[in-house]
Design a protein that fits this description.
Elements lengths: L1 E3 H4 L1 E3 L2 E12 L3 E12 L13 E2 L4 E3 L2 E7 L1 E5 L7 E2 L5 E7 L4 E4 L2 E14 L9 E3 L4 E3 L12
Antiparallel strand pairs: 1-8, 2-3, 3-4, 4-12, 5-7, 6-7, 7-8, 9-10, 10-12, 11-12, 13-14
Length: about 150
């Protein structure tokens, strides 16, 4: 996911930040719905929270299963699809990550921390997502089902 923070920074319900969602088409009529929420966590008295301060990260930040890069005003979030998926309330496969205090920026008013939240929801035939099979006696899991099932995740 890529976010243009310069063009999309605006006042949101809970403060100033960036919110966007888009669909990524996948085989036939399937798609991934991708949503990204990036929020400046600062007191309402900070005028500097109303703009995103250009910043460059030399190395990507790894948090949980995602990787975050910042190139000036462009935020890039890498979400590997080869990971454990949960189900949303409608039973669709979902990746949901919340990262508090991803990084901070020092301003004349004080420090501003940033919060990142992402959702990747799969809309389509969910039979392609095979739950892991546990072999309790052997102490390991067959990721994507047992080999003899001849099914794959992607």
């Amino acid at each position: 996911m890529v976010a243009d923070l310069d063009g999309g920074w605006r006042e949101l319900t809970k403060g100033w930040g960036f919110w966007a969602e888009d669909n990524l088409d996948y085989r036939d009529e399937s798609k991934f719905q991708c949503r990204l929420y990036f929020l400046a966590k600062a007191p309402d008295s900070y005028e500097s929270r109303k703009t995103f301060h250009e910043r460059y990260l030399l190395e990507p930040i790894r948090r949980g299963r995602i990787s975050i890069s910042l190139h000036g005003m462009n935020l890039e979030v890498d979400v590997p699809l080869t990971q454990g998926w949960r189900r949303d309330k409608n039973g669709r496969p979902l990746i949901h990550e919340i990262e508090e205090d991803v990084f901070s920026v020092e301003t004349s008013e004080g420090s501003i921390n940033y919060r990142l939240q992402i959702w990747v929801t799969f809309f389509g035939r969910s039979s392609m997502f095979v739950p892991d099979q546990r072999e309790w006696g052997d102490g390991f899991a067959w990721v994507g089902g047992r080999p003899e099932s001849n099914r794959q995740k992607f």
